[in-house]
Amino acid sequence: MESYYHWAVQKGITRRDFLKFCTMMAGMLGLEATAIPRIANALETKPRLPVIYLNLQECTCCCESLIRSSHPLFSDFILNMISLDYMETLQAAAGEQAEAARKKVMNEHYGNYVLVVEGSATLGEGGIYCTIGGVTANELLQECAAGAAAVIAYGSCATNACIQGAHPNPTQAVPIRRIVKDKPVIDVPGCPPIAEVITGTIVHYITFGTIPELTSLGRPKAFYSKRVHDGCTRRAFFDAGQFVEQFDDEGAKKGWCLYKVGCKGPVAYNACAVTEWNDGVSFPVKSGHPCMACSENNWYDSSTPFYTHLAEIPNDVIGKNPDQIGLAALGIAGAGVIVHGAVTSAVRGRSNKDGSDSEKDTR
Amino acid sequence: MKHIAIRRPVYVWELPVRLFHWINAFAIAVLFLTGMYIANPILVAPGEAVMHFIIGTMRYWHGIAAFIFTANMIYRAFWFWAGNEYAKIRFWKKVFWQDLINTIRYYLFMRAEHRGHLGHNALAQISYIVFIWIFGVVMIFTGFAMRVGTDPSGVGGMLFSWVIPFMHNENMVRMVHHVLAWAYVVFLLIHLYLVFRQDILDDDATVSSIISGYKYELPTTGQSEAVHSSDTQPALTKGD
Ligand code: SF4
Ligand code: SF4
Question: How far apart are CA A133 and CA A289, in angstroms?
Answer without folding.
Answer: 39
